């Protein structure tokens, strides 16, 4: 059993060769503990912050790589990634601001916003009961944020459609199935799965793959708030606990989003879902490894990009 583990460690070391665990050990030794303290305070008052940070992290890394471009505010001069349709419901920006302010007070212009997002996401996962893992740091912040660059797999995607986006970032099918397990702590607005309730793929009928009891509950929730767009938990059993129960719901055809249910129906991924549903330890281990790999996607290092003083705006150019 030691050989596969050592090989995986070596592989991840190569993937993140330009990042380093403990990157700030000499320039800002308390960096990760400062971030952790901010996340813990927020988590103690709002456990949904884990899902919020996971979504922010994913949406950032899948555009221009993990460069904190999603944090940039829109200005009169230009629109940013925040204005893209898929990012309108992303939240948690205030937590990143708080962590950045604390870090700037301790060690100005040293810790990147990109590293704050990545480390904060890990800390939130741990607080929700998920795996603890070391995060290589040393990312720099991007200097471009364009809504036209945002092209994320949608909630109604099939497995092949979603996989195109993941493979474009160097991630495998297994890593996609594992990373989508983050939906164990997520929520979704009714508008993201409305077609499954009444007009699936233009048939005029509900999605036949959805459990009838779940269909009834979702219809009741979504129709009872006329003119609004309410949210529902993606894992109704343990919605605030980071565990593998999400996969059990997929096997029972109780997944809310089409992409999640497709994981259990598609022949290429169904066996992976069954495996993760039966082994929570395996899920935690695979998720940690996949998050480290995701966190190394197209990162800026060295003198590339910048270290923002304010995560919401680019530094002023002289």
UniProtKB/TrEMBL annotation:
Single annotated GO MF: lactoperoxidase activity
Catalytic activity: 2 a phenolic donor + H2O2 = 2 a phenolic radical donor + 2 H2O
Main location: secreted
InterPro entries: Haem_peroxidase (IPR002016), Haem_peroxidase_sf (IPR010255), Peroxidase_pln (IPR000823), Peroxidases_AS (IPR019794), Peroxidases_heam-ligand_BS (IPR019793), Secretory_peroxidase (IPR033905)
Cofactor binding notes: Binds 2 calcium ions per subunit.
GO cellular component, one term: extracellular region
Disulfide bridge positions per record: 28-107, 61-66, 113-311, 190-222
Top-level enzyme category: oxidoreductase
Superkingdom of origin organism: Eukaryota
GO aspect biological process, one term: hydrogen peroxide catabolic process
Binding-site residues for Ca(2+) 2, renumbered to this chain: 184, 235, 238, 243
Alphabetical UniProt keywords: Calcium, Disulfide bond, Heme, Hydrogen peroxide, Iron, Metal-binding, Oxidoreductase, Peroxidase, Secreted, Signal
Positions annotated to bind heme b: 183
This protein's name: Peroxidase
């Amino acid at each position: 059993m030691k050989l596969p583990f050592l090989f995986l460690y070596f592989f991840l070391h190569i993937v993140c060769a330009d990042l380093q665990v403990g990157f700030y050990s000499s320039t800002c030794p308390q960096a990760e503990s400062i971030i952790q303290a901010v996340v813990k305070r927020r988590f103690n008052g709002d456990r949904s912050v884990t899902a919020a940070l996971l979504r922010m992290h994913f949406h950032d890394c899948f555009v221009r790589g993990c460069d904190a471009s999603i944090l940039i505010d829109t200005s009169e001069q230009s629109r940013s990634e925040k204005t893209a349709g898929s990012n309108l419901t992303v939240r948690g920006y205030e937590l990143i601001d708080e962590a950045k302010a604390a870090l700037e007070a301790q060690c100005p212009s040293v810790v990147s916003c990109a590293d704050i997002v990545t480390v904060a996401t890990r800390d939130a996962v741990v607080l929700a009961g998920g795996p603890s893992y070391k995060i290589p740091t040393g990312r720099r912040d991007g200097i471009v944020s364009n809504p036209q660059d945002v092209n994320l797999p949608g909630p109604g995607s099939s497995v092949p459609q979603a996989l195109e986006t993941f493979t474009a970032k160097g991630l495998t099918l297994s890593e996609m199935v594992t990373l989508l397990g983050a939906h164990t702590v997520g929520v979704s607005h009714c508008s993201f799965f409305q077609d499954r309730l009444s007009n699936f793929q233009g048939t005029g009928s509900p999605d036949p793959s959805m459990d009838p009891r779940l269909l009834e509950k979702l219809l009741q929730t979504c129709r009872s708030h006329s003119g609004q767009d309410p949210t529902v938990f993606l894992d109704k059993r343990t919605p605030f606990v980071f565990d593998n129960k999400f996969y059990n719901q997929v096997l029972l055809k109780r997944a809310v989003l089409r992409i999640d249910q497709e994981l259990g129906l598609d022949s290429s991924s169904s066996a992976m879902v069954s495996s993760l549903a039966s082994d929570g330890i395996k899920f935690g281990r695979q998720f940690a490894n996949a998050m480290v790999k995701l966190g190394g996607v197209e990162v800026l290092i060295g003198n590339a990009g910048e270290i923002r003083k304010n995560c919401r705006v680019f530094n002023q150019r002289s």
